[in-house]
Design a protein that fits this description.
Helix content is 60%, strand content 0%. With 87 residues, it is mainly α. The radius of gyration is 31 Å and the shape is elongated.
């Protein structure tokens, strides 16, 4: 890796052997943009990510169900109070 030929291919690399701090960001910015009209191949999620998404969806579902239950309980309580007021 540290052959003179390799060093000649990377002129931005300082003599210490370490890349400069902004080297990677600049190289990425200079990369040509891909054509956005080309279709991308579908990216498959890992089992770990899929399991995380299922647990997250289940937690959100339980939270929404508890909110609906609390709302219905409050409405039911208000209806009972209204019927007792009418007596």
């Amino acid at each position: 890796m540290d052959s003179p030929r390799h060093a000649a291919q990377e002129p931005e690399r300082p003599a210490s052997g370490r890349a400069r701090f902004g080297h990677f960001r600049r190289a990425r910015a200079e990369r040509p943009h891909a054509d956005h009209g080309t279709p991308r191949r579908p990216r498959h999620l890992s089992d770990k990510t899929r399991r995380y998404l299922w647990f997250t969806a289940a937690a959100v579902g339980i939270y929404v169900a508890s909110l609906l239950y609390a709302h219905l309980e409050q409405a039911s309580h208000a209806a009972v109070q209204a019927t007792h007021q009418g007596r």
